[in-house]
Amino acid sequence: MNYKNKNILITGISGFVGSYLAEHLIKAEANIFGLVRWRADGDTPRHIKNHGLGENVTLLSGDLLDQGSLANVINQSNPDIVFHLAAQSFVPRSFNYPGETYSTNTTGTMNLLEAIRNQNIFPKFIFAGSSEEYGLVYSNKKQYSKFIKERGNLFPEPEKIPELPINEDNPLRPMSPYALSKVQGDYMVRSYFMCSHIPTIVSRAFNHEGAGRGSMFVSSVISKQVSQIKNKGIQEGIEIGNVNSFRDWTHVEDIVKGYCLLADKGVPGEIYNQGSQRTDSILTYILLALKEINLNPTKIETFKNGKSVIDPIEIDKSEIFNIHFNKTKLDALMLNHEINFDLYDEGIWITTEKGKIPVHFNQNRFRSLEVPILLSDTTKINKLGFKVENNLSDIVRDQIHYYLEN
């Protein structure tokens, strides 16, 4: 699409992804409008400063929970395309503040759509859904049996096991107030397409990371602690929650290009996964982060129970879930259920060329209901021309250097 002189409204422009998207579209010579909350101090939001957006965007004050302010924003921006990214997106916070999460993510989305409908305009509307909507995905029958034994039932029941990789037709089993709010928003925007003819498109993006990611997200928690090891020495160690969780991590710059591709070629009323089509454990993320600061891991072993892996980040190219993707030797063992780590192990020693680094398991960082694995099937958006250009090491590099430089 030729974005030159197109009016683009980005909600959440001051957030992590919104600022990357604005920077990308400025280069395409679009007219960028950004919805921001009014600030008493009049200061410019951090991400807008860091990305040098400055005079290249028009910031419009408004609130997703105030329909009057949204009507003014729509009237002033007269958008050809709306990227609706604004949300309360931190899963642990959604458990503590479910009402806030629901109001912002669900009611706020409805208010924005109503503001557009009332103006009788029909911009392309890209909704930032989430892979968290899929929630509990079964990778093997043992996992399914364990859940049924502990919880008693499951809805919807799996039609096949494993349910990986995840395509757009996978069952939705949201496991947090955040995920539930995104499911509601997902259905809502598609309803507005059917009932009000607003050309809405849903992107279910899997985890996306990069420099400037919020400090509370696990990739940043790891990157910040590893940068401290670089600055202060290996005795610092790392504190983390569940290292067994697997995530489909994609660089934020690839996700932003995916959003723009959907605005250009996406079919209104449709859903598109965005992801890397690979999955990596949180423990592998830690190991690659240490490698990035030249502490090459050669072995891991638990504090208790005698679990160990030699050369854990050696590349493995074996097939799993009927697909091939590069993964670490450690992840291959974990995905094949040959090893896992739990609170009874207390932690892990990571042996590097310069000494041992302790990784302490913090029970308070474990979720009561954890999404065990996410692995995307992006066949649908790939047919539009989507292509991931960055690998996990690129993501780790950018996050580590962000903390080292700041």
Defining key terms:
single chain; five-stranded mixed β-sheet; seven-stranded parallel β-sheet; 37% helix; alpha/beta; 406 residues
Give an overview of the whole structure.
The protein is α/β, with parallel strands linked by helices. The chain is 37% helix and 19% strand. It has 13 helices and 20 strands. The chain has helices at 16-27, 46-50, 67-77, 91-96, 98-119, 141-151, 177-196, 218-232, 252-265, 282-292, 329-335, 379-382, 392-405; strands spanning 7-11, 31-36, 57-61, 81-84, 124-128, 200-205, 208-209, 238-240, 246-247, 250-251, 271-274, 280-281, 297-302, 308-310, 315-316, 319-320, 323-324, 327-328, 347-352, 355-361. A 7-stranded parallel β-sheet has the order 3-2-1-4-5-6-11, sandwiched between helices. The protein has a 5-stranded mixed β-sheet with strand order 8-20-19-13-14, with helices on one face. Helix 2 links the parallel strand 2 and strand 3. Helix 10 crosses helix 13 (392-405). The chain is globular. The protein starts with 6 loop residues before the first strand and ends with a helix. The model has no long low-confidence stretch (mean pLDDT 94).
Give the SSE map.
Elements: E1 7-11, H1 16-27, E2 31-36, H2 46-50, E3 57-61, H3 67-77, E4 81-84, H4 91-96, H5 98-119, E5 124-128, H6 141-151, H7 177-196, E6 200-205, E7 208-209, H8 218-232, E8 238-240, E9 246-247, E10 250-251, H9 252-265, E11 271-274, E12 280-281, H10 282-292, E13 297-302, E14 308-310, E15 315-316, E16 319-320, E17 323-324, E18 327-328, H11 329-335, E19 347-352, E20 355-361, H12 379-382, H13 392-405
Parallel strand pairs: 1-2, 1-4, 2-3, 4-5, 5-6, 6-11, 7-10, 8-20
Antiparallel strand pairs: 9-12, 13-14, 13-19, 15-18, 16-17, 19-20
